[in-house]
Amino acid sequence: MKPHIALIALLVRDYDEAIAWYRDALGFALLEDLDQGGGRRWVRMAPVGDRQFSLLLARADNPRQQAAVGDQHGGRVGFFLHTDDFQRDFAAMTAKGVRFQETPREEPYGTVAVFEDLYGNRWDLLEPRQS
């Protein structure tokens, strides 16, 4: 197997609230939810149909981690959700209460708008331009 990035940890306050938000607001699938004992869980979620890359929801367990929840990238966009139909997904996400920080805009690389997850992490919803 060729090396590839398989998952990235995302600090969350609570496993169940994060699962619910990513499932209900973004339509992600719950891939794994394994009890590791001591209140720890191995929770992986991914966009439906994308099993190569996933988010590992990691509950913040100490003050340093708790302070980073919602600011994992220092206020920058740190996550990029690609779509093949920007208008469809923008409308669906807006209807589900996702907070967009801007109106959609056209860039040389595609149609994009920044939104926040339940903790305030910034994401791009992006329909890449076809080359």
Provide structural commentary.
The mean pLDDT is 95. The strands form two sheets. Strands 5, 6, 7, 8 and 9 form a five-stranded mixed sheet that branches. The protein has a four-stranded mixed sheet with strand order 1-4-3-2. It has helices spanning 15-24, 63-68, 86-95; strands at 7-12, 28-37, 40-47, 54-59, 77-82, 99-100, 105-107, 110-116, 122-128. The protein is of the alpha+beta class and 131 residues long. The relative contact order is 0.18. It folds into two domains: 1-69, Roll (2,3-Dihydroxybiphenyl 1,2-Dioxygenase, domain 1), CATH 3.10.180; 75-130, 2,3-Dihydroxybiphenyl 1,2-Dioxygenase, domain 1. The protein contains three helices and nine strands.
List the helices and strands and how they pair.
Layout: E1 7-12, H1 15-24, E2 28-37, E3 40-47, E4 54-59, H2 63-68, E5 77-82, H3 86-95, E6 99-100, E7 105-107, E8 110-116, E9 122-128
Parallel strand pairs: 1-4, 5-9
Antiparallel strand pairs: 2-3, 3-4, 6-8, 7-8, 8-9
**What is the CATH T-level topology of the largest domain?**
2,3-Dihydroxybiphenyl 1,2-Dioxygenase, domain 1
Fourth-tier CATH superfamily name of the largest domain: 2,3-Dihydroxybiphenyl 1,2-Dioxygenase, domain 1
Q: Which structural class should the secondary elements be placed in?
A: alpha+beta
Tell me about the largest β-sheet: 5 strands, mixed
Reading off the top of the CATH hierarchy, the class of the largest domain is best stated as Alpha Beta
Average predicted confidence as pLDDT: 95
Instruction: Please tally the helical runs, counting DSSP H or I stretches of 4 or more residues.
Output: 3
Report the radius of gyration as a whole number of Å: 15 Å
Proportion of residues in β-strands = 35-45%
Q: Provide the number of structural domains.
A: 2
- Globally, the shape reads globular
Q: What is the helix content?
A: 10-25%
Terminal-residue CA separation: 28 Å
- Write the element-wise H/E pattern from the N-terminal end onward: EHEEEHEHEEEE
Q: Count all strands and give the number.
A: 9
Architecture per CATH nomenclature, i.e. the level-2 architecture of the largest domain: Roll
Question: Are there runs of 5+ residues with pLDDT below 50, and where?
Answer: none
